[in-house]
Amino acid sequence: MTAQMDTEPRTHKEYVVGWVCALPKEQTAATAMLDRRHVGLPKPRNDPNTYTLGSVGNHNVVIACLPKGQIGNNSATNVAAWMVSTFPSIKFGLMVGIGGGIPPKVRLGDVVVSTPLGQFPGVVQWDFGKAKEGGSFERTGSLNNPPTSLLTALTALETEHDLVGSKIPEYLEELRERWPRLVPKYLPSDLQDILFKADYGHASRRALDLDDTCNVDDVDEDEEESCRFCDKTQVVRRKPRDMSVHFGLIASGNQVIKDAAFRNKLNEDLGGHLLCIEMEAAGLMNNFPCIIIRGICDYADSHKNKDWQEYAAAVAAAFAKEFLAFLQPTDIEGERPVKEILGQVLNAVSQSGANIKKISSHLEQKEELEILNWITPINYGPQQSDFLGRRQRGTGQWLLESTQFEIWKAIKNQTMFCPGIPGAGKTIISSIVVDHLDQEFQADPAIGIAYVYCNFKRQDDQKINDLLEGLLKQLAGRCQPLPNSVKELYKYHKARGTRPSAEEISNVLLIVAATFSKLFIIVDALDECQASDRLHFVSELFNLQTRHSANIFATSRFISEIMDQFKDVLSLEIRATDEDVGMYLESHMGQLRPCVLENRQLQEEIKTTISDAVDGMFLLAQIYLGFLDDKLTANDIRTSLKSFRKQDRGSSEDEKTEILSHAYDQVMERIDQQRPGLRQLAVKVLSWIIYAKRPLSIQELQYALAIKEGKFQFDEGDLPHIEDMVSVCLGLITIDDESTIIRLVHHTTQEYFARTRQDWFSTAHTEIAKSCVTCLSFDVFEAGCCPTDGSLLARLRTTVLYGYAAKNWGYHARYSLSLDDALILDLLQNTFKT
């Protein structure tokens, strides 16, 4: 037996109740509760809603559901607005569906109905408010109370429950008889109400033991989200009881909550009166007089899953039916149609809406960009572009096609750790992973992706605050609009001229992370981060994973401390495969002499010999290829190939580091053998890059090299050419195209010079200090302060190094061996220049 269908159409004006659902399963439950179904009615062409029409008791009801895949307050507002426009006689609404319950009072399968409590209306928008002194957060979302006529009817219905009980069980039995196809999903007999302790996070599927029989397709993500692997000793023991209906406070926001600690803090902030958390009600309460009805399907903690959702939707719909059956048409006769209430406002908005929207959008974008840059000026995007641009097409595919990576990408709450020897190409692999995820999920705003590139030269930018801020900036930037939690953090500290603590950043990061259905975090070169900050950062990453099932991908060298932190996770060593090295060498053969380009056999010898010699070190392949670029005959090439040290497969990291060090020795010997002018330029370039207090842009280094001792005017004729600066260093330096930073080619290059720089550049600090003091002594500064913006810009164009020199000349002078005191005294005694 199903609901009877009335074939005689009614008019739009005969429908007085608007029933809004967020999910298809909620709409199914709502439709199943109708006493009678009505044939459809035409709607305006621009109305995007789809309506189900019917009746419950003496009320004609319109049911509409949010578009598939869209949830939250804004979507609910749009659905309700079109519904009221198309059905002009609607007097009130019901928002019916599922939500998260607040233990211990509320249990799974219970129903929560929004009713005012004290200073609060029935629904509070939890993510709208203002930060207060001391770090607290005052919620200022002011939502309208439901109509008095509905509240009066609810009070009478609550009394009826006390006297004779609810009719929900009766309506569920009717559903069982009338819609038998729904019974297995909506009325299952094997549901278990399990509440875990608030401080116990969800335990996902343990890291797989990967063998030949393991296949990513065998992994069931629904099983992964269940609590099969959770520790049952952490379950809160409670006495069984029947389903209950609760009347009181519901918190609504635009973010999914899967955090018991956050749930409990929210309840505490609301005086301990909170019963339910959901995502759509706040979008209706101000403009659509309604009651919110929620069936409880989870506890808003990390153990959140879908087991109870259909049953919760059914009990919520059953209560809605009970309420409508209890409510008499005379109870709402005095209520004005919603469209009439909103008419004047809608007219005013329609007249100026287009202009306001355009101006508002521009201001919001500007404000959001300001907030994101306030979080941190650090932007990893240019590094991602640079690293990806260095990828040889087709390389790294072996990792993307590995079983470990497929499992990591497919299943939530997974960690993949990829250690590798120095120079194996770990950073390029990380950029490939970031690009792969971006390409696959760029059209899905529900997927969060953030990444960090640690760098040995940027320790000042890698404190724990910097690292967390980098993740927060990226994830918040993917949200439209910017989350209120981020805006409030900005407003609070901006007003006081302060910066947020690591704890504050972490808390907001957890809130923002909750907005994504899936979250990927990629961290490259953990070994290049200072140990104390690294330990704290990894702890924060795992906390994010515990709270929101984030997927973490990390690379590092084989450092025992780091290896210990990533035990029992998916793991795959990064090493340049022979195929990848071969592709790189093939694409770069063009830089060699004609004796190679015209001899295919010799090209194969080069690829085979270098691939065997480097044993997984991409960097070494680049160096060895560079050794061949000045060889003019095939025999010269073969002689050099014989000199390459062939490694034993599986040699230790220390042994491979020693091989790299020997290769760097050979490069420096080649630099030393260049003609005097080229050698001098290489020494100056390397001295600045190695000894500079911070990374330099290519323009800064150009201008530094153009400064001549005893010459106190800038002369463009002294600027060296960028290509010459790079080529004379024979592969030891590189330019990041996006950031324009000129740097050593690899972390191991920095390590090599940390050990040997005094041998190669014994007077570097002295020469750099002289250049800095000379820059600060330029005649142009005799004129004093610039009177106009134009004159300031003109001066800055000829004193590009001024910022670095003014801040760091003392540092270099302190370590100088033989700096001319007269030069420094002249600068310090000149009041215009100091």
Give an account of the 3D structure.
The protein has 834 residues and is an alpha/beta fold. The protein has four domains: 291 residues, 3-Layer(aba) Sandwich (Rossmann fold), CATH 3.40.50; 192 residues, P-loop containing nucleotide triphosphate hydrolases (Rossmann fold, 3-Layer(aba) Sandwich), CATH 3.40.50.300; 74 residues; 160 residues, no CATH class. The protein has 33 helices and 21 strands. The strands form four sheets. Strands 6-12-11-7-13 form a five-stranded mixed beta barrel. A five-stranded parallel beta sheet has the order 15-16-17-14-18, sandwiched between helices. Strands 19-21-20 form a three-stranded antiparallel beta sheet. Helix 7 links the parallel strand 11 and strand 12. The longest helix has 38 residues. The protein is elongated and about 100 Å long. The N and C termini lie far apart (93 Å). About 4% of the residues have low confidence.
